[in-house]
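Morning - flavin-adenine dinucleotide inputs below, output right after.
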Amino acid sequence: MSHRVVVIGGGFGGVNAVQHLRGAPVEITLIDRRNFHLFQPLTYQVATGALSPGEVAYPLRAIFKNADNVRVLLAEVTGVDLESRRVMLADVPGMEAVAPAEVGYDTLIVGAGSSYSYFGHEDWRQYAAEVKTLESAIGVRSRILRAFEAAEMQTDPDARAAEMTFVVVGAGPTGVEMSGQIAELARDTLHGDFRAVDSRNARVILVDALDRVLNDFPASLSRKAARSLEGLGVTIMVNRTVVDVDGESVTLSHADGSTERIPARTVVWAAGVTASSLSGHLAELSGAEVDRAGRITVEPDLSLPGHPEVIALGDMIRVRGSDGEIVTYPGVAPVAIQQGRYAAKAVARRLEGRTPAPFHYVDKGNIATIGRARAVAQIKFLKLSGFPAWLVWLLVHLFYLIGFQNRVLVLIKWSVSFFTHGRSARIISNAPGGDPPAGGHIAEPAVRGASDADAR
Ligand SMILES: Cc1cc2nc3c(=O)[nH]c(=O)nc-3n(C[C@H](O)[C@H](O)[C@H](O)COP(=O)(O)OP(=O)(O)OC[C@H]3O[C@@H](n4cnc5c(N)ncnc54)[C@H](O)[C@@H]3O)c2cc1C
């Protein structure tokens, strides 16, 4: 029997590991709870009607259609038995009694990613919409569009103002992108669509507990991003901590202890993240450490302490360097991609009886887009802003997007909307996450130091 490699997670890390193992003398089983690879860097464009869901997701089966040594299983991984080398599975919702109870492995690669955390305020989640999954992005889109529809019919001026107020929590790249896109939607795309309200009067507020937007970028680019956002009409509120979200409003606390309540029905969450629960599970089984964000600490070759046959990667890990220092890489796609490729090489090396060299991350830079022809980028020592940065952002995203058809479709959509300001995917659907809880519409809390900087 050939060597069995099980890969958990068809995200950036898992897909790249499988892609680079497809020619190796191994049998690969890729398990994901979704049947598609999601290009998370563009889900916020689904949330603002710029792209359709199918343009940022690609079926895993299609990616590996021609790889005879790869089989894909649509199932939820519920646990791992490190001793007997088995992965336990459960059915995903809507499928019953079909997933095998377990799958055995000789090598296990785990890239289960992360999710947004609400900093101990789980009750905020019901009001707080985030854009990490495709379902939640579709839900956010419905909530934003419904807010304008409600404002059109609302006769009470205060209630109308609350409908037209959008609060984005966390001024990292996702928060900056979301607030810029909502502002462009209100200012350009929806302008003229309504009769009772002027969409340009919408208030978009970007909140963070730190003292500037894009805290991980150099201060000069951070200032340029802030100016660019303000040019779009976004109100930036830094040095504010979200202390409450109740579906009708967001309450912020200032450094001097005073508080401010902002009536707002729609709140988008783009703050901190927490690692997949599989990270804690593996840590418990192996005795590895986890940090406050739930990331498991792996060895320099990304293996689990005491288990060279188990590799973990991407958003769910931090890495012990050869010198013993623990490195937390940014939660961005290039880290997961490079670790996926590395994992494939490490498996191949071990099969040849050789020891893999430690993982080394090559940092190619940081980009955040703000809106149409507005972005900031740091590539090594080069700092770009405005149109040149936006062009780099566009090319990089098209390059990494999986699927030729998706690349062409996205390029066409972006080109059309560049000239027309249009957004064709302005659909209100009843997808999960799109319906606000009873008594509330859409709201999200802002959190201490709220920023997704550590997520990207
Ligand atoms: C809104 C947003 C915008 C972003 N923008 C950027 C950006 O512009 N640039 C950038 O570089 N990075 C960006 N990132 C970060 C980037 O997307 C992540 O760093 C990257 O996806 C991490 O890859 P991963 O393989 O670790 O996990 P993921 O890509 O999250 O993949 C994890 C996979 O595991 C599956 N899975 C998890 N648990 C289970 C289970 N128990 N059973 C079965 N399957 C499971 C999930 O379904 C998923 O497919 C963004 C993230 C978000 C949320």
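Note: The chain has twelve helices and 27 strands.

O.
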